[in-house]
Design goal:
Blueprint: H1 12-29, H2 34-42, H3 62-68, H4 72-80, H5 95-101, H6 105-125, E1 140-143, E2 148-150, E3 156-158, E4 163-166, H7 176-181, E5 184-188, E6 194-200, E7 203-209, H8 213-224, E8 233-237, H9 243-250, E9 257-262, H10 265-273, E10 282-286, H11 289-292, H12 296-299, E11 306-309, H13 316-329, E12 336-339, H14 348-364, E13 367-375, H15 377-381, E14 396-404
Parallel strand pairs: 8-9, 8-11, 9-10, 11-12
Antiparallel strand pairs: 1-4, 2-3, 5-6, 6-7, 13-14
Helix pairs in contact: 2-4, 3-4, 3-5, 4-6, 5-6, 6-14, 8-9
The structure holds S-adenosylmethionine.
GO cellular component, one term: cytoplasm
ANK repeats: 58-90
InterPro entries: Ankyrin_rpt (IPR002110), Ankyrin_rpt-contain_sf (IPR036770), RMT2/GAMT_Mtase (IPR051038), RMT2_dom (IPR026480), SAM-dependent_MTases_sf (IPR029063)
Length: 406
């Protein structure tokens, strides 16, 4: 992170704190004992040491080094002092990833649990205004709140000294407005796989890819579980390539009502061309889910047996807003909700934290969540998706199955 080039950040106090952070990095590269390192850390107050500095070449932060030293005590001390957990090194790995690669469960859990709780509290305290971001590019550094608290492991965290690194994304991949104004291309590649791509500056980004087919197929199977399928009502938000909608339609007993909410004009044109507007019991609502979720078209149905959402360019805040509506959308005790879990899917630690966050929030809303892993490694390994698979680099995808606790 090149903070030296940002004059706003370079007050004398901050410069001194950065120097102290760099000194700690240096000490961590030397064969010093835990006590010697801890002594230096303890000699500084939280305002006097910047624990988010990174080594120029490797990109390692103090937390990376502590984990690499296999020193859970130091890892804990750094977390308590406000070290930033989601800094990625030059190879794209967080300190949590280093712990995973060393099979160091203790350090991994320390980082994961502490940060999970921090984000849970932040989400509640600030109406989800500040949230976890994958720091591919760091555009702003903010203080978040002032309270201190102890987490489940008894780690004391001072929120006032914790930095949230937030990536702004105004491209079609991160902004609904930009996405809805961008042109989409539907294509079939050489391997016969369907693609839906969006123009984003000089490149094309995958909106929906054929490799997600096994995820959609398994999701439909799970959503049908324990349901007698007679009079099966489905709500799906986001048509994309229509993969999941096709699986719903191909089920031995097709839905008695199949509502699809879709806002993008190019997708709607594609749906029209493929005959979706003429299918029996299919109702297409042209707009965003936010436009219809309170409408009679949705609430007047009297509840759905299956609700699914997989919309492009929305973040966790918007997904959480959808979670809040789930209880009123489901019809009864066998009704189920699911969503495409691609949150933090470029990194196992991010993915794990988002999984926990979703589960905790859904529990608060009176729901039980179970997870089913689908192997997407093969689809990745043969390389047929090339660069379009960038947004999901994990070898597995977790499918959530959500039921109301009735
Ligand atoms: C990843 S695709 C969905 C793929 C689909 N699950 C399938 O099986 O093919 C995302 C879709 O969500 C739509 N979308 C984006 N924002 C939306 C919103 N706010 N409400 C509903 N749909 C939205 C996009 O236009 C796109 O068609």
């Amino acid at each position: 992170m090149n903070i030296d080039s940002d004059p706003k950040l370079l007050s004398p106090e901050l410069k001194a704190a950065i120097d102290a952070g760099k000194r700690l990095l240096e000490l961590l590269t030397q064969p010093l004992s835990h006590e010697e390192i801890a002594q230096y850390l303890e000699s500084k107050s939280q305002d006097e040491i910047a624990l988010w500095v990174q080594e120029d070449e490797t990109g390692w932060s103090v937390l990376h080094f502590a984990v690499h030293r296999r020193d859970p005590e130091l890892t804990r001390a750094l977390i308590e002092a406000g070290a930033v957990w989601n800094l990625v090194d030059a190879c794209g790995n967080t300190a949590g990833d280093v712990a995973l690669s060393l099979d160091d469960e203790e350090c991994y859990r320390l980082i994961r649990d502490a940060e999970f709780l921090l984000h849970l509290l932040d989400t509640r305290a600030q109406d989800e205004d500040e949230e976890m971001e994958e720091p591919s590019t760091i555009s702003s550094i903010q203080d978040i709140g002032a309270d201190s608290y102890s987490d489940t492991k008894g780690i004391k965290r001072r929120k006032g000294n914790t930095l949230v690194l937030r990536a702004e994304d105004s491209t079609p991949a991160g902004s609904t407005e930009a996405f809805l104004n961008a042109k989409l291309t539907f294509a079939t590649n050489k391997q016969g796989q369907d693609l839906c791509l969006v123009d984003s500056g000089s490149e094309q980004v995958g909106v929906m890819m054929g490799w997600e087919r096994p995820i959609m197929e398994e999701t439909v199977r799970l959503l049908h579980k324990d349901n007698d399928d007679t009079d099966f009502r489905v709500l799906n938000c986001g048509f994309g390539l229509g993969i999941i909608d096709t699986y719903f339609q191909k089920w031995p007993t097709p839905p008695s009502l199949h509502v699809i909410i879709e806002p993008h004009p190019d997708v709607l044109a594609h749906m029209r061309a493929r005959g979706w507007y003429d299918m029996a019991n299919v109702r297409i609502l042209e707009g965003k889910w936010q436009d219809f979720i309170d409408s009679d078209e949705i609430l007047g149905v009297g509840g759905f047996d299956a609700v699914y959402t997989d919309v492009f360019s929305e973040d966790y805040k918007q997904l959480y807003a959808f979670f809040e509506r789930v209880p009123e959308l489901l019809r009864g005790e066998n009704s189920k909700f699911s969503f495409f879990h691609g949150l933090g899917a470029t990194n196992p630690l991010f993915y794990d934290i988002y999984t926990n966050l979703c589960e905790m929030h859904l529990k608060e809303l009176g729901c039980t969540v179970s997870w089913t892993d689908v192997d997407v490694h093969t689809a990745q390994a043969d390389g047929i998706w090339g660069e379009t698979r960038k947004y999901f680099s994990l070898p597995y995808c977790r499918i959530p199955l959500v039921k109301m606790d009735i």
